[in-house]
Write a structure and sequence with these properties.
Length: 293
């Protein structure tokens, strides 16, 4: 193994220009330094690489062989440097993020669109997952950033920062038979068919606690796997669902969904951005983070 990669770089330009002086000018060093680098390279390799006559330098057969590999190798080095610089300048690279369903529906689309407009050459890899899966993805390095919504148990394996809040509200379809002018208690609301996510979902656990504070046991008529399905069943007129207001803002504006009045609303939930200290955050990911601060 040659001790100094610059010996190869010097050899490359001497062989290319067939001149010590031109190589020295290109490398911004003295001709003597070029000569010394070639001598050291020949000594470490144990082969004569150049011959010199009165007019010019010529490569020996060993020099010709080495030159073909050094030329390709240096091109690869320069390509690698160029790609690194392009990544730093956001002309290439990949952003790997993950989020829960609610964050994807409520919060991320506009940010992703804005980021893509600013950096069209950046590839975005997105994983939609549960909070537990996002923790695993962060730990394994499959994603750099995770967007999660409370409630969840914070573990010390990652760092989090709050970036937004969302408010869940009770809604029904426009044709659902209920007095929309009345303000309901949770006890009164529970007499109607209710649609929620399943009990292992953190949102359901939050709603269970919300109803329990009013001494009401939440017993939904329909239990589904995700918030998107809750919205679908509510729109079909099957019952009342608690949905993030930001997710259904358009539906509320057009009147296809209607917000019911409650004596008190569920506590707001926070959207957190999580990273893990065990994996360094790339410049691309840091740029994306800056959009939330």
């Amino acid at each position: 193994m040659i001790s100094n990669i610059e010996y190869y770089r010097t050899f490359l330009y001497v062989a290319k220009f067939k001149s010590f002086s031109l190589a020295a000018d290109h490398l911004c060093v003295s001709q003597s330094a070029v000569s010394q680098s070639i001598k050291k390279l020949e000594k470490e390799l144990g082969h004569k690489l150049l011959t010199r006559n009165a007019r010019e330098f010529k490569l020996t057969s060993e020099g010709e062989l080495l030159f073909s590999y050094v030329q390709r190798g240096m091109e690869e080095f320069y390509t690698g440097e160029n790609m690194l610089n392009r990544t730093t300048m956001f002309q290439a690279g990949e952003l790997k993020i993950g989020a829960t369903e609610t964050v994807l529906r409520v919060f991320l689309p506009e940010k992703l669109l804005e980021f893509k407009k600013r950096f069209p050459n950046i590839k975005i890899t997105f994983l939609g997952a549960t909070i537990q899966d996002l923790r695993n993805y962060l730990h394994d390095g499959d994603i750099e950033l995770a967007f999660m919504v409370t409630p969840f148990v914070h573990e010390n394996i990652y760092e989090i920062s709050e970036i937004a809040q969302i408010q869940d509200i009770p809604v029904v379809s426009a044709d659902f038979q209920i007095n929309r002018k009345k303000t309901y208690s949770l006890s009164e609301l529970s007499r109607f068919p209710i649609i929620t996510v399943s009990s292992e979902n953190h949102v359901r656990q939050m709603l269970d606690g919300f109803f329990a504070r009013d001494n009401v046991f939440l017993s939904p008529d329909y239990t589904v796997r995700n918030v998107g399905t809750v919205q679908t069943l509510v729109e079909r007129g099957l019952g009342i669902g608690f949905l993030p207001e930001a997710m259904i803002r358009d539906k509320l504006a057009e009147g296809s969904l209607v917000q019911l009045k409650l004596t008190t609303l569920p506590p707001k939930r926070s959207i957190f951005l999580a990273v893990t200290p065990s994996h360094p955050v790339s410049p691309i990911a840091r740029e994306f983070i800056s959009m939330f601060t």
